């Protein structure tokens, strides 16, 4: 009778072992492989939403200049801003500042009371074009505040006509 019990005991142990193998295989742990695995790539940056304000800037990329409606649009296109206003073929000429030493005196123009004073204030970026005049020069500005800051007198609403 002992031989039969022994055979049953061995058969029971084998059956128990076969039942535990799938359970033990399911118990796994994910181990970080360390620096051998490359890190995941970051998501590409999304373009920023830009307003449609009109404040032209000149952008440069790879030696190429291009005019944009505003700085946000230039940056979204991958351009570096190199100046305010539209791009020009020739580099802008630096104008002498009014109080700069070394500037030749102009006795024919001592103080000009007819010239509007430049307030230098901060303007909103609303687009309400005006035509401004300073001397014989006329120029279109995005709004009256910008014209005033540039020292121009407003002569009409809308863009200047040639």
Automatic annotation (TrEMBL):
CDD domains in the record: KAZAL_FS
Region (Disordered): 90-129
PANTHER family xref list: GEO10195P1-RELATED, SERINE-TYPE ENDOPEPTIDASE INHIBITOR
Annotated protein name in UniProt: Kazal-type serine protease inhibitor-like protein
Residue span, Kazal-like domain: 123-162
Family matches, as Gene3D superfamilies: 3.30.60.30
PROSITE patterns: KAZAL_2 (PS51465), PROKAR_LIPOPROTEIN (PS51257)
Residue ranges with Basic and acidic residues bias: 97-118
Species this chain originates from: Rhizobium azibense
Leader sequence residues: 1-26
Keywords associated with the record: Signal
């Amino acid at each position: 009778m002992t031989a039969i019990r022994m055979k049953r005991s061995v058969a029971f142990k084998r059956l128990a072992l076969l039942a535990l193998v799938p359970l033990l295989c399911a118990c796994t742990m994910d181990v970080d492989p360390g620096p051998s695995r490359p890190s995941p790539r970051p998501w590409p940056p999304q373009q920023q939403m830009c307003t449609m304000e009109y404040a032209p800037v000149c952008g440069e990329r790879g030696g190429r200049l291009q005019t944009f409606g505003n700085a946000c649009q230039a940056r979204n296109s991958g351009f570096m801003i190199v100046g305010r206003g539209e791009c020009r073929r020739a580099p802008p000429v630096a104008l002498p500042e009014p109080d700069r030493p070394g500037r030749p005196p102009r006795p024919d123009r001592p103080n000009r009371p007819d010239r509007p004073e430049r307030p230098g204030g901060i303007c909103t970026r609303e687009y309400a074009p005006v035509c401004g005049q300073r001397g014989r020069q006329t120029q279109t500005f995005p709004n009256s505040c910008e014209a005033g800051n540039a020292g121009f007198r407003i002569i009409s609403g809308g863009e200047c006509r040639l």
